[in-house]
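Protein 1 of 2
SEQ + STRUCT:
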Amino acid sequence: MEFNATFLISAISFIIFTLIMNKIFYSPLERVINEREKFINDTKLETQNTNIKADTIIKERDEKLNKSYSDAKELVAKKLDAANKNSKEKTENAKQKSTEEIASAKLNLQNEAKNSNEALKLKVKDLAEVISSKVLGMDVKIADTDQEIIDRILN
């Protein structure tokens, strides 16, 4: 193979062409590629950080929801217990009040029955005296011992 001036000029031309292409085409292209690669890497890193923050926020939200749920459940249980206790107290109070009212009514009825019996005894005594007076034709008074006999008859 022969090395002459055309080979040397071709080699120099190629080197000059490569340097010019490097300066004009490859350098800007390499710079754009590096910028895009840096942008992609930065965006990827930012996305990872955002995902980590989102996971943290989701965990905090779930913890708060669970805590709120358990607090609400506890509050409902407390209110239900208080309502049951209040209901039992009111029921007991009502039972006690009704028992007292029944006892009072029984006592009143017994007193009225006793008073009615006394009044009835007096009327029976008066009626017996009137009947005896009319039958016998004279004034008859019934003594207290006779009243005991009338009481036995009525009871």
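Protein 2 of 2
SEQ + STRUCT:
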Amino acid sequence: MKNRKKLQILICYGLLMILAGLGTPAASSADDIKLSSGQTVYVPIYSHIYSGVKARPFALAATLSIRNTNPKHAITLVSVKYYDSDGKLVEDYLSQPKQLKALVTTRYIISEGDKTGGSGANYIVVWKSDQKVNQPIIEAVMIGTQSSQGISFLSRGQVIKEDL
């Protein structure tokens, strides 16, 4: 009886190991890397979220991070615009295009307590390059603290248009 229990545990463990292996992405080859010469990217931003039974707002600071992941070539930020929950433009961050050299990161910050955008705010980022390059990582990191409670999370940008 004791050996049967051990065998069942070993089988369950083995199945878990197999399933864990199936969920792991395979190493990507150079052919799997997607290159682009420009995109329009939507990034969700949360100036606050709601918590508790009474759905009280929990204020958050948000950082938009744009990372040029290409090790050799620059990309150009054509537009970085911040919109509120109603889709109205709150701020246009660039008066002229901004170049990000290879492996350079830039950021745009919404301070904690700035509720201008609302809980459904977003950025629209447009970037381009003279040649096909690795796609940048564009994401938002939100963080907030109240009393002894803290919260942090991120949202990844979603390509909404491939600019050719």
